[in-house]
Amino acid sequence: MKLRALKSLRRAHPTAQPRFTLPSGEQIPAHFHISEVGHVTKKFVDCGGNFRQREACVLQTYVAQDFDHRLKAGRFADILDLGASILPGDDLEVEVEWDCCVVSQYPIESAQAREDALEFQLTARHTDCLAREKCGCEAKAAATSGACCR
Questions:
Q1: Is residue 140 situated within a structural domain?
Q2: Whole-number Å distance between alpha carbons of 10 and 122
Q3: Full residue range of the structural domain in which residue 67 is found
Q4: Residue 150 lies in a domain
C-alpha cells in the first residue's frame, strides 16, 4: 500500500482504530503504539551486478504494558504528519515493523474500513534472485527451493 492511500483512508475514518493482521492471521495487540515513522532506503547490488535501490515508509509498532491505550486513526494521522519532513513523498510503499521474537517488516497488502476499525492485512516479504538469467537460475527451481545464487 502506498503512503498516499494510507493517508486517505485514515483521513476518511478519523475515529476508527487501526488493526494490523500478520500473515499468520495473528493480530498485533490492540494497545500498540506507532513509535516511529521512518524513511528507509536500501541501495544494493544484486548477484548479476545490477545496482538497485528500494525505498519505503516504515511504521514501527511498539507494545507496552499500557493496555488501555488505543490508537485512533486521527492520532495515527498526526503521527504520520510528524514524519512528513523526512519522507520524500506519498508514493512510498508502507511497511509495518513488528517485534515478536525478532524485528520484522511487513508490507501492507490491503486495507479496508469496517465499522469502528481500519483493518490492515500485512504480507510477508521473501528473498528472490533478481538476476536469474545472469546466474543461470531457472525460475521454477528458484521458486520451489528458495535458493538460487551460490
A1: yes
A2: 17
A3: 3-145
A4: no
- Extract the C-alpha cell encoding 28: 498485533
Q: For the stretch 54-86, what's the b/e string if a residue is b when 16 or more beta carbons lie within 10 angstroms of its beta carbon?
A: eebbbbbbebeeeeeeebbbeebeeebeebeee
Please give the tally of structural domains in the chain. Answer: 1
- Kindly compute the dihedral angle of the four CA atoms of residues 99, 104, 110, 116, in this order, to the nearest 10 degrees: 10
CB 2 within 8 A of CB 92: yes
Question: 11 lies in a domain?
Answer: yes
First-to-last alpha carbon distance for the chain, in angstroms, is 33
Q: What is the mean pLDDT of each run of 10 residues along the chain (150 residues)?
A: 93 90 94 93 94 96 82 85 93 94 93 92 92 75 46
CA distance 86 to 94: 14
User: Structure pTM?
Assistant: 0.84
The predicted pLDDT at position 64 comes to 82
Report if residue 63 sits inside a domain. Answer: yes
